[in-house]
Fold this protein.
Amino acid sequence: MDVAQTLNKKLAIGWFTFTCSEDSTILFTELLNKHFDEWKKLIDFKHVKSLKTKNELKDLDVAFVEGAVSSKTQEEEVKKVRENAKYVVAIGQCACTGMPSASRNAFEDTDIDDRIRWYLEHFDYNKKVQKLEDVIKVDDKVEGCPMNTTKFLSVMDKYLNLFNII
Ligand code: SF4
């Protein structure tokens, strides 16, 4: 038995959602149907708003971040996640490449009708939607729209191994 197992160390994870449709969050919670019994012994779900209301953004081993970054507020939030996590994994195409959430970057002025203008004027949206890597350092990517669950499981295993949990 290694040191981490002896100390009962768990992988402290966070799951965060920015501009997106949250489909990868749904896939993540679906994966719990199969993996929860195993993961609860190995993983500390420290900041996962889809699972619980009491969350702590502090000393995370891995932060999984879904969605693109589309406002100053989101930029600040995502930087806070980076400061409090040893590793950050971009989840899904919006976080990895910006698209499809960044579709509006290609809008011409003539595409902006009154309805769109109302949103732009009433929220603190940036001019351009950014992929996660444009704002913070990203250590891994799980691409797919929504995320590829096989890749996600292999990334989870990678970090469980890296932190000597398994
Ligand atoms: S990558 Fe696709 S599924 Fe995931 S949030 Fe973006 S649009 Fe939704």
